[in-house]
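ingest -> validate -> predict -> emit
validate: passed (alphabet ok, no gaps, 350 aa)
predict: started
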Amino acid sequence: MITRRPFTLGLLSLGVGLAAGCSGGPARRGGATSAATLLPHAAWDCGLPQGIPVPEQGTLVFEAEVKLDAVYDVGRTPFGLRQAVVTQEGTLKGPRISGEVLAGGLDYQLVLANGVVEVEQILVLRTSDGKYVLLRNAGTGPDGNDLRIVYDFEASSDGEFAWLNTGTFVGRRSIDRNAGTMRFSVYDVSAVNAAGAPVVRIGKPAGVPPQPWDYRHADPSEQRGEEILVETVTLGRSQAIQNGKRGNRNIIPITGGTVKGLINGKVVFGGADYQSFGGGGPPIDARYMWQAEDGEIVIVRNTTNPGIGLVPTFEARVDGPFAWMNSGKYLSSNPGMANGGVSISMYRSR
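emit:
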């Protein structure tokens, strides 16, 4: 059974040759890839298709440590071996910035059959000036020993840390399952000249679909069919980013809830509705997870399609009871008010 596991066991099934106690740690000094530029696969280019340099060749921006709320071994999904981590609060400190990492961050790690690691992170910071910063990061590496994360910041353009909106930032992320912590470091590599450095190309196994970065764009002719479930989602206090590099953001943390229908269980703590106003993204972009009564985890994304409404997608274990959610097309109602949050119905598309 796939379920929430203690931190001491949560990463044991990765099978990527990780050292005991951590995953995605610093590059091997003297190893085959430690000094090389990583050329990411086109299907997961992390925003740096020209190559990801060695982070430590840049200038340190900050280091952070956060507590882990939960580690979920989702299992083998259509894209590879999936692990999902939810973070609690933490602190960050650097030469030019300090603040805190807010609870509810998501870290989705994927391990491919050839050992390649891909990561997507969504985190929210509160800097020392009291403003919020959204991070949606993508990372890759030939294995867990040289995992590089490309950091993307959305900060207020009229705040003290508006400089985070520009530049190129690459870093590391490591998970210590014994201590129940995640650490990450961020370097500004804008001035790094990787000319002449060796290059390692990241490959993907044949026949495996790439995990999506974008949300599903439904056909305008799609209509709601059979109702499959109703969820009630409880929400935290909004976190606003004004005049960010992609417009305004209203981030509404997801704190829990229930799911009833063809899947019965709960909405787990973590993630948020990362609302966007001003053309920088969909008005509603909710990222979160369900845990069924049998412990199975389903990763959910529910996103506005202009002129259509909300369109959900799901990721579940391919050999589990909810594998049917990986295929097919689905639509969603708009959120309705519920006690402490919202109520949403989801349907098959026809």
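The chain is about 0% helix and 50% strand.
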